[in-house]
Design goal:
- The structure is a single chain.
- The strands form 2 sheets. A 9-stranded mixed β-sheet has the order 5-4-6-7-3-8-9-10-11. A two-stranded antiparallel sheet has the order 1-2.
- It has 9 helices and 11 strands.
- The chain is globular.
- The chain has 237 residues and is of the alpha/beta class.
- Helices cover 34% and strands 28% of the residues.
- A hairpin with a 2-residue loop joins strand 10 and strand 11.
- The chain has one domain (4-230): Rossmann fold (3-Layer(aba) Sandwich), CATH 3.40.50.300.
Length: 237
Amino acid sequence: MQERLKTGIKALDEILDGGIPRGHSIILAGSSGTGKTILAQQFLFSGARDGNIGLYLSLSEPRDKIIKNLEDFTFFDKKLVESDMVKITDLSSNAGLKGVGLQDPTEIMGLIREIVLDSQAKRVVIDSITALAANFADDAKIRNFIYELEFELMYLDCTTLLISEIPPQTFKYSVYGIEEFIADGVILLTEFERKSELLRACQVVKMRGVNHSRSKYMLKILEDGINLIPFFNAGLE
């Protein structure tokens, strides 16, 4: 069986028969507030505790703000950040310092490769693939970039979460409609209304090489991070 990497979320690891297969690129899709960043960070901190360096490439928020938003979670460990076992990098600022144009897929690919190699990361999160691809002019460039990015990260022996920003309460996995076909897996975070309360849910839609459940799970964000509860246990069947 292909090696599995634990996500740090017990129920999700059980759904995935042990975790995400090593070397896979996963689309982590959801609208604002569904828990994408928290799930992705748990994945990195879980790996760091097992000795695997994690890299978080952000295009939307500065490093200090990301860290501040994580400090109240018990999975967060400042020492892992200070030792660069979990490295949080502002990709836009990094590109500006190196004179790399965000509109050039070749230059961006080279910059990501350089950052990954320098960090020696084996777990990578890109937040978000939606914002990154928005810099390119046409669908062909977007499709080619995403394909080459996933191949490059697989070649570098990275297991990757590509965060995909989608509109709320819509049955789709990406903005461009191509990411989910190229990726090895899709984890969908959604929200739904029940008795005037907006609730969160998680569903593994696709994971190559894994015999997994496609059931929806209630998602709660607690002090220890993401918690998944079967709908029937949450009284939502």
